[in-house]
Amino acid sequence: MPTILLTYGTRPIAQRIAKALSPHHSIVLASNEEIPTVLSNTYKSIPNPANPVFAHEILKLCLDKNIDLVLPLGVAEIEVLSASIILFEEYGITILRPSISAQQKIAQHIPSDTPLLIAHGGHSLLDKTPTPEMVQNGVYALAADTWLPVII
After folding, report:
1. CATH number at residue 40
2. 10 Å Cβ neighbour count for 32?
3. Alpha carbons 11 and 149: distance in angstroms, whole number
4. Fewest beta carbons within 10 Å, which of 27, 34, 92, 134?
5. What is the C-alpha to C-alpha distance for residues 138 and 89, in angstroms, rounded to an integer?
6. Rounded distance, CA 60 to CA 106, Å?
């Protein structure tokens, strides 16, 4: 069973993603936000992506917890980890990040009834079906018949 590191783990959208993935994947929830002491066993604390050691701390966590896939939900996390993809690949770890451009719309506030698609390599992580052509890696929400990347 593959293990996925999901960032912004304390946020409702991350909880929803974790619940959807949990039947077929082990989930490690992480956050750079303050984690209450009572939840410190459930969530892993990670540095802010502005911290110069962010990518290395994520890699260390991945190696310590045998994580196969990293699903960053924050825009700054995606940017930092995108620059470190080769480093992670050397250890067999895949960063699931959407390809986004400055002109592309993104989904930031997702109602709980909005359909989600969690993709890796052009296939759904939920049921292995092929994804639409514009969806390769990351989390997407359906908005007005278009799949938009979910980014916090």
Report:
1. 3.40.50.20
2. 21
3. 16
4. 34
5. 16
6. 29
* pLDDT, tens digit only, all 152 positions of the chain: 899 999 999 999 999 999 999 999 999 999 999 888 888 888 999 999 999 999 999 999 999 999 999 999 999 999 999 999 999 999 999 999 987 665 567 777 788 889 999 999 999 999 999 999 888 899 999 988 888 888 88
For residue 124, the SS3 value is strand
Chain-centre distance of CA 7, in angstroms?
A: 6
In this structure, what token pair is assigned to residue 24? 């077929």
* CA pair distance 20, 11, nearest whole angstrom: 15
Q: Quick check: 100 and 93 in contact, CB under 8 A? A: no
